[in-house]
Structures are given as structure tokens and as C-alpha cells.
Amino acid sequence: MSNNNISNGIDPQNNNNRPMPKHTSLGTSKVVLISALVFFFITLAAVFPMMLSGADKTVIIRIPQNATMTDIKDTLKKYTGDSYTSRILRLMKIRNVDMTRRHGQFEIKKGDSPFTAMRKLTSGGQHPVSITINGFRDSNQMAERIARKLELTPQELIEAMNDSATLAPYNLEPGQALALFLNDTYSVYWTATPKELIEKIGNNYTSVWNTFRRKLASDLNLTPLQVTILASIVDEETNKRSEKGTIARLYLNRLARGMKLQSDPTVRFALQDFTIKRVLEKHLEVNSPFNTYKNFGLPPAPIRTTSVETIDAILKSEPNDYLYMCAREDFSGFHNFASTYEEHLKNAKKYHQTLNEKDILQ
After folding, report:
1. Cβ atoms within 10 A of the Cβ of 188, count?
2. What is the pTM of this model?
3. In sequence order, what are the residues at sequence separation of 6 or more whose Cβ sits closer than 8 angstroms to the Cβ of residue 36?
4. N or C: which end of the chain has fewer CB within 10 A?
5. CA 343 – CA 97 distance, rounded (Å)
6. Taking a C-beta distance cutoff of 8 angstroms, is the pair 107, 127 a contact?
7. pLDDT digits over 189-213, tens only?
8. What Å distances lie between residue 241 and 4, 37, 334, CA to CA?
């Protein structure tokens, strides 16, 4: 036996040469496993509630450029409360996220867990903003309304609307940007720059003015811009769909005969006074390219934003021989049309008589 032990390289007198008992290795594994399980359950106990509790309401969170964690924390507290915010921030810390480059508008929906909210804020896509254009008469007013919903300023948008290079792709010049903003609802990001916004609006304008509509405009000897200008006047003259094409043809008849349009809405626009109900002789003296009582042809730009519906009403309108119109004396919003000046004078007399009876001076 002793010879065999020596020949096997084992010194029976040396305890260090004895094999490690198997139960010692198994004990270490158990300690590691138990420690891992304890850590897992502790972590689960801390994180699990944050994955279950939901937001009380749907909120929009805006993170401006260069926002600090303090800014983000204050915004979250304002809209989601202290408890919900603290859970989101704890999860951000666990993930060690860098918020210095996050910038945009994000939606936390009612019922979203803090974990879901954290993911939206740290790596989710932006929630778009809806901007509705509807009958704006003034570029400055429109820019101000739009700026309320976006990160840009009214002045930044006005500058872009008057930039020749920005308008060139649409064959428009500074001062004609209202033509681009067709009445519609547009979906953009809160972080959109003025140029990106105009490109979005411009894509719709280009889509509307496709080959088919351009051909119809050409058949009327008009450019897309001229149709849009005419449509803006028609929209100011009436909100009755059935009359839009008729009024447009009346003005086209006047243009064809070399007559002045003599449109009251253009005078109000020239004066920038849309409270005027009755256009008087004194109003007609305003010196402006938009005063169609003094100038021949169409104004140089739209007098308001218009719609595809009105554009199509013009392009698909039936010819008529009308040259004059006057609001009906019943104040229904409809008009009396006339082909001769004599007939027009009779219609105008009835209307002005009613105005005088009701003491409507302006």
C-alpha cells in the first residue's frame, strides 16, 4: 500500500495532498445562488411596484434643448406628481441614462407605468403636434398662433415666410406665403424648425397643385398662385358653398373685360380693419396694391388662407355672364347677381335701404 501511494505521487504524511471534499464545493455554490436570489428579489421588490403603478392622467412632457435634470424633474412633478416622478427618476438612475441630448415632446398616457414613462422619455419617439390652419387673414397673427404650439418663435417663422430661398420651390415671393398655408390640419413635431414646418406645409401645397389642377388653372389662364388669391377673395365674400364658383366666375369675367375687381374684402385687408361692415367712399381711397377699387387685376397676394374646397370650386366652376353682385337685403349671406349695371343698381338700392333702416354705418 505504501509503495503504491508513493508511486502515485501521494505522500501519506502530507495532508495538503488529500483531495478537497465534495461537500465544500457544493456549499460555496449554494451561497452564491442564495446571494443571487436575495439580490434578485430585493431588486424585484424595488422595481416591481414601479412597473405596476400607472399615471393618473394623460400628460404631455416637453423637454427643451439643453434642459437639465432639475428642469426635467420640475416638469415631471408639475404634471405627474412627486411620487410618480421619483419612481421615473429612480429608474433613470438605475439605467444610467444621459438626458442631455433628449429634446422634444413626449406623451405619458393614463395608466402608463413609471417604467413605460421612463422608456418614452429616454428613448421613445416624439409625440406630434396638430396645427390647424383655418382662415387666417394676417401672417403675423398666424405665426403667433402656430408658435404657441411649437418651440419656435413667431419672429423666426415670419423670417422664414419672407425668405426668398425658402419660398422659391413653390414659385412664391416674400409676402405671398399665405398662399402656401392651405386650410388643413398638419401633424408636426414640437421641435420643428421654421424651415421644417414650411417644408411640411409646402408638401401639402405641392400635392394639391398636382398636374390635374394645374391644367384646370391653365385653362382659366391662371397660375396656381392667382387661383389661390382669387379663392381667398371668394372666401371673404361668402361662406356659402353654392356661391363660390359663381362669384369666382364673376371676377374672372371682370378680369377678361379689363374691369377692376372692386372687391370690398380687399379694401378691408388694405386697411387691416376687418370690423368694417359697410365699405364707404372714404375707405376706397386707401393707397394699397390690395385696393381693387384703385388697381386693376388681382392683388399681389392672398388676403387670407384658403381651402382646397374653394380652389376646386373655382377650377370646376360653370361659366356665367355676371359682372356685379350685391349682398341680399335679407342678410341671409347670399347675393343678388347682375349682368348689367342698371340691374345691379336696383339690387344695391334694396340692400343699402335696409342698411340705412338698421342704422348700419360701418
Report:
1. 19
2. 0.81
3. none
4. N
5. 77
6. yes
7. 999 999 999 999 999 999 999 999 9
8. 114, 73, 10
